[in-house]
Amino acid sequence: MSQTHEQLGCISATESPPRPILTISGVAKTYGDQDQEASALLPITAAVYEGEFVSLVGPSGCGKTTLLKMCAGLIAPSRGSVTYRDTALPIQPGSFGFVFQSAALLPWRTVRANVMLPADILHLSTTNAYNRANELLELVHLGNVATKYPNQLSGGMQQRVSIARALLHNPEVLFMDEPFGALDAMTREQLNMELQRISINQAKTVLFVTHDIEEAVLLSDRVFVFSNGPGRLVAILRPPTPRPRGLDVKADHGFHQVVAEIRALLDGGTDSSRNHP
């Protein structure tokens, strides 16, 4: 299946077509040996384009997080490859940030010191990292808690810190594995809007795993829909309105149409006619 320029929006003769930042070529994942081999993810071919926000949606155990981690180079595919830009190589640690399901902050480090953690790992300038951490804490509206410790913060505030930490080294790509799944609905909506603002203002490419269909449609340029495990990519859908979107878009008919289409696919419907990686 091929991706046409028209499917990514209207491109004039004077504009350059969007560039893939991640190219997913026949990627699959199996576990076990040849006698007891189990497929976690069937072969997938797709692309993620520079500056896009792409959500991965599907049932538990369908391979969403497996694909996310293969795209980040954290686990190796059993077949196929994920390459970064035109390098023919996987993405390298300095080019991406990763936000996990839980904030995973170090309890003995202050909020600022937690945000600065990538500087220790990547051997970056401490002075630059300190200044960057302060800027990012202001960006996520936590400038007043820089010297506090994680146990003094709410769950939503901790996740804001984890997003700031993932952005410290100014990565091109942000991988996010259900980062808001454990939060209450109101906090989740607030962080959805924060994430959208940050991803647009910071010009980040985001690959985002979620079980929440409305969250995916609200935030994404495109939504990758997966079947039950072993996971299979059954559709790639585009919300009807461009980003940025406010929470009021959830009242729109077009929004509900896409949500209903994804839900039907997850309930075992046929592959979407709008399947276009």
List the main descriptive attributes of the protein structure presented here.
Rossmann fold; alpha/beta; 9 strands; 277 residues
List the helices and strands and how they pair.
Blueprint: E1 20-31, E2 38-49, E3 53-57, H1 64-71, E4 79-84, E5 96-99, H2 111-115, H3 117-122, H4 126-139, H5 155-167, E6 173-177, H6 185-201, E7 205-210, H7 213-219, E8 222-226, E9 233-237, H8 253-266
Parallel strand pairs: 3-7, 3-8, 5-6, 6-7
Antiparallel strand pairs: 1-2, 1-4, 8-9
Helices, by number, come to 8
Widest sheet: strand order? 5-6-7-3-8-9
Q: According to CATH, what is the topology?
A: Rossmann fold
Q: Using the alpha-carbon principal axes, give the shape.
A: globular
Number of strands: 9
Q: What would you call the structural class?
A: alpha/beta
Mean pLDDT: 89
Please describe what this structure looks like.
This protein is an alpha/beta fold and 277 residues long. 30% of the residues lie in helices and 22% in strands. Strands 5-6-7-3-8-9 form a six-stranded mixed beta sheet, with helices on both faces. α6 links the parallel β6 and β7. The longest helix has 17 residues, at 185-201. The chain starts with 19 loop residues before the first strand and ends in an 11-residue tail after the last helix.
